[in-house]
Amino acid sequence: MAGLVPAAATSAGLAAALATLTGLSRAARGLPEALGAGRSQIGPSAAGSPHFAEGTFHNTEPSHVLAPGQALSMIPALIRHRGAGRPAGPVPLVTDHPAADAGDLAVTWLGHATVLLEVDGQFVLADPVWSERVSPSPTVGPARMHPVPLPIGELPDLRAIVISHDHYDHLDLPTVRSLVRDQAAPFLVPLGIGAHLRGWGVPEDRIVELDWDERHQVGELTLTCTQSRHFSGRGLRRNPTLWCSWAVTGPRHRVYFGGDTGYTAAFTDIGERYGPFDVTVLPIGAYGEQWPDIHLNPEEAVAAHRDLRGGLFIPIHWATFDLALHSWSEPVERLLAAAGSARVAVPRPGERVNAAEAPIPTGWWRAIG
Question: 80 falls in which pLDDT band (50, 70, 90)?
Answer without folding.
Answer: confident
